[in-house]
Design a protein that fits this description.
This protein has 95 residues and is mostly helical. The protein has one domain. The chain is built from four helices and no strands. Helix 1 packs antiparallel against helix 3 and helix 3 packs antiparallel against helix 4. The radius of gyration is 15 Å and the shape is elongated. It starts with a helix and ends with a helix. The relative contact order is 0.15.
Length: 95
Amino acid sequence: MKSKRKQSERWALFGGLALTVSGVAHLVCPPAFEPVNRLAFKDSIRAHVLINGSIEAALGLALLNSRTRQAALAATLAYLTYFNASLLHTFASSR
């Protein structure tokens, strides 16, 4: 049972690190993320890139801490739902 805990801990750390790096990359090089955000949002693309980068970095950092991990997982699911809903809404309104 302990090995499963360690494996899930490693996955959480990997996911948290990946999300943190992705979020910081949004802030350091926003033009790289503008095409993806343009698919989900119509206006203020740069603002959305910076906001999404900040959200991703915060979620990633929260995943790295075992005390905040469960809340971070729930918040990450909410964030992914919001981003995907924005994509669907943009595609539906462009038709």
